[in-house]
Amino acid sequence: MIDEKKLIETLKTCDFSMTPNVLVQESLEEIIEEQPKVGEWIPVSERLPKDFEKALTCDEHGNMHVMMHHHTFEVPFGIYESDARYYRPIAWMPLPKAYEVQE
Q1: Which of 5, 67, 85, 101 sits at a 20 to 30 Å CA gap from 30?
Q2: Which range marks the domain in which residue 16 is found?
Q3: Total of domains in the chain
Q4: Could you count the other beta carbons within 10 Å of the beta carbon of residue 10?
Q5: What are the tens digits of pLDDT across the range 36-53?
C-alpha cells in the first residue's frame, strides 16, 4: 500500500518542465487520485462504488454496515430498514480482501 497523498505531493515537487513529461506527471496525478483510498472514508457526495461492489458504509449516527451499491437503487446503496425509513450512508470505504486460509 502507498500513501497516495504523499506520492502526489512528491510528484508536484518534481520539475518536469524541461521535458515533454509534463503530461506524464498530470496523468500520474489523475491515476493516483482515482485509486481507492485505503483506510479512508469516501463521502457518498464525492463518488460511489462501482455497481455491485460491496463496501463498508457509515451513516450520520456512526452505524456501519456492509452493503452493495447499484446505480438503479432509489438511494445510494438502496438498503431499506423498514417501510417508513431507510438506512442512508454518508460515507463508504472499499472492503479488504477476504482472508484466505493458508495450508
Answers
A1: 67
A2: 4-34
A3: 2
A4: 10
A5: 566 789 898 888 888 888
